[in-house]
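Most newcomers find our protein records easier to grasp once they have seen one. Read left to right, the backbone structure tokens trace the chain's path through space. Once this layout is familiar, the rest of the handout is easier to follow. The record below serves as our worked example for the rest of this section:


***
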Amino acid sequence: IYEDERFIQLNLPARADDIITTNICSKWEEIFSQRHLLSSLVIKEVRLALDHIEEGVRKTALTTLRHIIALHDANPHLTTSAKERVLSTYLPVIPMVLQMKNLKSISFSEQRSLFVCYFHILSNIPMDILCGWWKIETPQMLKQFYDVLIRAIDIF
């Protein structure tokens, strides 16, 4: 479904202002899921797969996420601002990674794939959205952000 030409149109809010930048909680995820149904389904499936015992399931999920992000990034029909809006719909990947308890239990290659997605999203979402998220996030989550950066240094 993510290769369908209407994936982006079905997934984007009407305006850039509609991208939610409130604290990460179950209500926030519910609202986000309603506004960005397709990307939220992908993220939920990746989250579930990362908890799976079989490495093949986790690798397939991460490969799919990387592929989707790469397709959006390489789409010649999208302007830079449109790409930023599209990648903003993957913002929940950031707290998903920060909240992962089993990050060290997944393989090196899985961690690397996850961090490639994580950093690509971080580097391509609009700064105002990232700053809005940063301002309202809890100190514990911000500490996790730096812990993940340190872990990524070990991976790369």
Summary: Residues 5 and 75 are 10 Å apart (CA to CA). The two ends are 32 Å apart (CA to CA). The first helix runs from residue 7 to 11.
